[in-house]
User: Fold these one by one.
Assistant:
Number 1:
Amino acid sequence: MLPLVAKEFAGWTQVWAPAKVNLYLRVVGKRPDGYHELATHMLPLPVYDTILARMAPTLSLQCDDPTLPIDSTNLVMKAALLISQRHATDSGAEIALRKRIPHQAGMGGGSSDAAATLVCLNHLWNLGLGKNELASMALELGSDVPFFLGKGPAWCTGRGEDLTPLATPEAGLHLVVVKPSEGLSTKEIFARFKAKPMGAAWRADADAETGSDFNFKQAIAQSAQAVADTLRNDLEGPAVQLLPALAHIRAELMAAGAQAVVMTGSGSAMVALAADATKAVSVGQRLMLTRTPAGPVAVFVASTVPSNTD
Ligand code: C5P
């Protein structure tokens, strides 16, 4: 699924930008720079936005979702402006964004679009930028953006940018992702979380809660059942306060036969694990019929394939 690749198609350079889910997210503490130190697992999900670009005298963006801005507040435009200012001041491009990943979902749509834009324009403008140059621009664009330049499932620390590949179980994970129509703001969710301030003396290796991280990492090397027993997201508390319908979705997923449920990222999508692919489809179908207090839901069903972490 990853890494992102640029392909020529009908006169356009095209990059498919996948979604992600977090199966584990521990907020370690609040850093002196205002960001939160995280210990999290991120997994690409086969739901894709598409970035298309072709040569033009100036930079412009169009999008098939009319609710999204197409000015410099859109992460695609931010990424295009950044790479052009740093590496291609005389180049322009007509960029088209086809949006399929729900926004304000914790599914990384905006971050993935930003990473895909860097890869797309690096190819279109023939810049030859390497991994490190792309990764440093990626982190300027957002904490999750470097993940999408990586190779697949990863254990992520720092703001989320320090990546260690972490394979999923051989037998596969069977996921049902449910996104209520209402979204949540990452900034607001982090602001509501009561994180402990991290003093200068804090050290990763002395972090008292790393036992929980260790258990998750052991579980993901073992089996889907072990993963189901170790799911965690510290941001779910503040998210449920803002959007109580999330508790309803969790209960519906469990009643439909899910093994375990966790919110992804800062929400509002919820991820359920199912025992097998057939069960995942039946859980997804049941959720499609559920009337949640937050209105209709979008449902995505996917299974992982063994990941190559070489
Ligand atoms: O990095 P990004 O722009 O995606 O983050 C959006 C907001 O989420 C940040 O402005 C910050 O308030 C919060 N955040 C955080 N710690 C992180 C990631 C995000 O506090 N590791």
Number 2:
Amino acid sequence: MSKTIDLAAEPYAFALSPEHCALLIIDMQRDFLEPGGFGEMLGNDVSQLRRTIEPNRRLLAAWRAAGLTALHTREGHRPDLSDLPPAKKIRGKSTTTIGDAGPMGRILVRGEAGHDIIPELYPAPGEPVIDKPGKGAFHATDLHSILQHRDVKQLVVTGVTTEVCVNTTVREANDRGYDCLVLEDCVGSYFPEFHAMGLKMIKAQGGIFGWVAHSDALIKGLAALK
Ligand code: TIU
């Protein structure tokens, strides 16, 4: 499979090379997306994130049907919290913070129900899951090695939240030489204005961090591969 797919994108068309491209789905975790989770407990409107579930589900199905590489990330920490920076633990001055008992188990702790990926987008056997302690998916993880071993040079990035973990990961990827395509309908933020600006920042200045497109264009392109 050496065909490239030319996708309508901003600031200009993205030439997707299926054999060198991976889908990276960021932090679609129960604690960020589900009513009654940590995100909602902090006063956030989870519906702003939940609108991304169906577009991600459709995209993931098409991506898997095309036989391409998909990876998933989860933000969280070891149960002993040894990888939790003290500054992250106390930031926000909330009475309930990371590692404490939350609505779906200990907050952002690996192995707890709220830390896991929502059932709608659950990783299939063989799809790598990257457990990351930070906002960026490259910091303190083996993501870069896994991608290099598979000769991945491009990333389609989706997930939450647009201006936090998605933006941080795209910036990290850009500095490591990856071309990133962010799908606007498959990323979301608790704050609509940050979502809009987060996308603008990626595609500004000739695509300073990458490209932005709609998942419809990619799904159509994947169908044409068959
Ligand atoms: N995944 C991710 O973006 N983690 C966050 O903490 N996001 C917030 O918007 N808080």
Number 3:
Amino acid sequence: MIKRSTAGMLALLLASTAHAQVAKPTENLAAPVKTFGRVSYDARSLMIDGKRRVIWSAEFHPFRLPSPDLWRDVLQKLKASGFNTVAIYFDWGYHSPKQGVYDFTGIRDMDRVLREAAEEGLYVITRAGPYVNAELSRGGFPGWLVNQRGRARTDDAAYMAAADEWLTRIDAIIARHQINNGGSVILHQIENELALTTSAQRRYMDHLYAKARGDGITVPLFHNDQGRNGYWVPESSTVANVVHGPNDLYAFDGYPGGTCTAQGKPTRGSAAPDWGYYGTGGAKGGASASPDTPAFLAEFGGGWFDYWGSNGGYDCNAIQRGKRFQRVFYGTNLANGIDIQSVYMGYGGTSWGWLPAPVVFTSYDYGSAISEPRELRTKAEEMKQLGGLIAAVPDLAGMVPAGEPIVSSPNVQVYHNKNPETDARFLMVTHKPSNGSTDDRFTITADLPDGRYTLPAAEPMRLNGFDAKWLVAGVTIGKQRLVYSTSELQAAMSVDGSDLMLLYGRAGESGETMLRYESAPQVRVLEGQATSRFDAAKGDLRLDYPHQGRAVVRVEGGGRPPLTLILADEAEAVRYWRQGPALVRGPALVRSVTLKGGTLAIIGDTREDTPLEIWAAKAVKSIRWNDSAVATRPTAIGSRTAERNLAGPAPISLPTLTWRAAYGSPEAQPGFDDSMWQSAEGKPYASITARPDGQPNLSMDAYGFHDGDVWYRGRFTGTPDAKQIALYYGAGGSGMVQVWVDGRFVGQDELPGGLPRPITTGTARFDLPASAQGTGEHVVSIMVRNNGHNWDLDSDDAHKEARGLISASIEAPGGRSFAVPVAWKIQGKQGGEDLPDPARGVANNGGQYGERTGWHLPGFDDAKWQAAPTSVQPGTTWYRSRFDLALPKGQDTTVAVAFGDTDTPRSVARYRALVFVNGWNIGQFIAHVGPQRVFPIPEGILNHHGTNTIALAVTSDGAPGDMLEPVKLVTMRTVKGGLPVRMVDAPQRIEASK
Ligand code: IPT
């Protein structure tokens, strides 16, 4: 190996510093309201139907979950976890195998996901590219676009015409789902992190804006700046040094908070940045780049991606940006007036098939709140609490700084905001700096709407370790007046003329809640411990209690309707779901609650035998859980409990896999019939990769092969001096090349894993076997595995880096290359850009012999295949296994394919496998690179109630031991509940073409 190049990659975990608590309201609070149908905004917040809303969003990529019946599962989990909005990227390349050819059916039915989001009560932020990045091969550009010479992401005419092709189609779908047309799309993004700001880019941006408007997009348009650079801010901004664009809103992305160590340990290196009111960012600082528009974080890192050869970062990412981080960082954003905030990712999912860019492997779990197998992580519980507060206190939208309160501890800071209309307060308590982790006791003294208070009045509050508290004060909830609480509010509900509040705190800490009454109310402690005292002069009722399990307090009289307070510790509070007309305690998930004709229907999941408790209207006569009646009885605290626990899931048993195998690299043999292959000659070269002169253009894309594996066969007349063959190839992250001469394997070369910045091209030299050095005709056979095209993050056409062979030279001794003409033929994915299997689509296949002949498909007849071999050959050997599943019905189970010893990220054995389940390429396992060994298969791809086929294309250098390790099916999760899932419709077989 003599030469490597690196793909442009980000090292953009933006650092931040702690700031003094000096509010600098750079927003132009007098900015006029701008209206786009039902959506409007001023400098403080977005408004929907004139009502201010905190837009609390999380990202989901439908293309990373190729089983559309499960999209609703993810949407419901986001909703149940407190989000009111979902942000969706659309992947141009996913829909377009060939210029002019588009598919929006089946797993590509974007109309469906937008409809379902609206049905689930979620607003949608659409992000339609043309470029999206998103750790996708080519950043979402279609394969055919790399053959375009004109610079992408500029006003180059051919590029813009191509982009328009896509935009016309996707915009038409998005347009009909806008809130202005009866759907729920409220904001629309044009382009993604375009950090090059030349006039060609400005004209391109103008074009994109006009195109969206021309296509009927009527909601506000925005672009997401890579950081707080002030790129593409609306013309209304008079801030110095910004780059103006045609956009309505300015948005930026941020991924602060550090990363895990290589050993998988979280770090707390930086404090939460002040990217708004409390920032000191100068002219370009934070939201102030566009003072007339609301502060908008289009992506805030809620996890991070992971790379080939890591030690497995996702579990740590989930902690690094998990519980407490969310409270501190998302809370600081909100305190800074960032009222539009979207977490990237809410559900990461799977970069199945050839979707991944070189920077990532198959799993795109991202450490997000919903894990790849669709389980709610612990961090989702905290999300639910944050979302619950936003839903319970609409006054949080459009707040402004309210002046610094007095805090008794120097280690603690309190962001203090108010709603100018209602005067309601938000007190966001963190350490100073916010990544501090000391154990502190403190009080806060502030002029609150109901008077000046030092709180708590009893014993001081506590902030123990890296944490934050989201407190509200001076807020009217239902018919109650919450003067302040040192507990956090998770949910509120008004029912039958009474109010209910769920407040929580850290276990063992005491809580204090102050309520306002006209006269002394009656206080009854129905459960647990609490004390109360009434200050008749002020009308203040003070409740003091420990956060320990649960206390329930009922307050009646005093000039207000009755109030029930549930005072919980965290472990207790996270068991509650505020859905529809009810508050439900118990299940692992409550997807929805509806009340119809006296019947309260609750839909959800249980992870185990679970008690059920419900607060709902008296009008509820009967209760159903997942369509079965539940007998309940009233409790002394005003709820009802189920007479019997809800059942948990039944155990899962999975079959052992047995295999048949066949050798799958016949192209290596000199006599292989390649008469139908294309000659590699004459195609124009559009790649950015500099290429030695005097050779034909060998790059795979020029011949219509954009993804996965590609084969080359070259014929040359030998000379006695021909000693070596030197290759320059492009193969993406951990890609590889294998070489045979006259049917003899001469070696392979792999691009190294273990680097967060992948090396994506390489050079390798192989000795020719003595037999090939004589005169006469010889055949060289080469397989290149293309593990993805680079993204175009820096808008420098990096996605056009060549893939496949770039050059190949026969060399004399000493590495001198001399002219031995080689007649090359090339073969890749069957049909090239004309897909034989449009249902599975563009990302499913490359050009392995077994893929070209349908060995990966369930309908292939493998009766003639042999038992699995006991020794290994260089090249690719296919293994197939057929098995039946009869998993429990009414249960949501995620089954996975697991390779070898799942306790280590890497094997000693060196081999890789493409994993096809019922014909679907659900990922790539690279044994000696790792880290992923367990590949979840979404139901719908896997048949939980029928016959399944797994096909593995195992590629090895043939050295002893470099062969497939034991493969088994494992259960990653199972719950009782879930949604009905049908099999995704796709062909059982295709016609072979070799
Ligand atoms: C930002 C991209 O917009 C998004 O598509 C994705 O790639 C994300 O990062 C990382 O997962 S790029 C920003 C971190 C510079």
Number 4:
Amino acid sequence: MKTLVVFASLLVLAAGRPETRPNPHGAQVLRVVPEQASQVHYLRGLLLQGNYDFWTEPRAVGHPVDIMVRAFQLPQLKKTLSQVGLRYTVKISNVAALLSKQRAAQEAARASGSRAMDWTSYHTYQEIMDWLESLAADHPDLCKVENVGSSFEGRTMKMLTLGKGGPGKPAIFIDGGIHAREWISPATVTYMINELVTKRDTYDDILSNVNFYFMPSINPDGYDYTFTDDRLWRKTRSDTNSIFGCKGADPNRNWGFHWMEVGASDEPCTEIYAGSEPFSEVEMRNVRDQIIKHGSDIKVYLTFHAFSQLWMYPWGWTSALPDDWQDLDDLAKSAVDALTSVYGTHYDIGSSTNVIYAAAGGSDDWAKGEGNVKYAYTIELRDTGEYGFLLPPEQILPSGEETFEGVKVVANFVRNTYGK
Ligand code: 0X9
Ligand code: ZN
């Protein structure tokens, strides 16, 4: 009997993310809205078990939680939810259909045009890196591209430095794509780079007084994997010691500040596996080393995620606020006002633990707590769950336009506050 129980629980664990291409046929995204604290707690327990893919994590009473459920899991989850009095609605009724519709649209867009960069379709890692190189070649007085290390599978990681003022100017560090499936993040970050470079005369004042460090896709192996194998992959692709062959760590649980204290897992098959130790993931070490290298010049750290439309600041490891939280909150409010003024898109603001949930090991917490970057923000881009990670490419441009308005507010703030 004992053997049976052990075997059954191994099967359940393995079902979370077996290292075979998952079958999306029949998968749905269910939305549940917990009405009591005990239900939030229950959902968090379900998340930690690792059997379901939570597109949004349980936040608090009244906040929707989106769970992607594979066909074979649906009957069990629906039963479980009703047992604890949780009602659900079907948010995406046919994940497979949406995936193939988007794949077809992406292929059509790419068949008709060149592989050159645009913001009407999503681009591969190689295309993004080639494009960064082309910017540096075309604008050598404004842009510099450096190789800053390799990913686990050997992809070269590049950083673009943008600015005309020379070294020593106050700087903003911006990264994207830490979570592989959050495609709108690299797309939005590259949009902003493109605006700054192609409209360099318009932004001359900012570019003369502020330096930017851009790394638009900091999880290259995971990102490529979402193009080739599993569109909904989140983590890196490193080897783990999992007996099921589960791969990858959550790169946003891997940073060495209060690592593994809360909201992270030591089970490699879960989506929030923190890695075997702080900075076990080489990609995160590469990003960390650039932040350290440019040290006290960096006044702002922005890391772009999706989705939920949130502009968050530390801490993620505790519900306590940083001493200077009011400064971070003020700047976030100004940025979000500008963002919202473009298309009316609503963003919530606050510390990540208080706005969503406690989760230690995030890059924002490290940037502030260890990297001494005062203004560290995690920004969750569009949408609020209609498409979730599968945001149609038609939304790349509006996302870029509105987000860039917010980032310009931040850049002008840096120029005015720290510029000499
Ligand atoms: O859980 C995360 O890593 C982020 N949300 S996402 O849905 N994109 O995965 C939020 C991170 C907030 N920051 C910290 N917890 N430090
Ligand atoms: Zn994310």
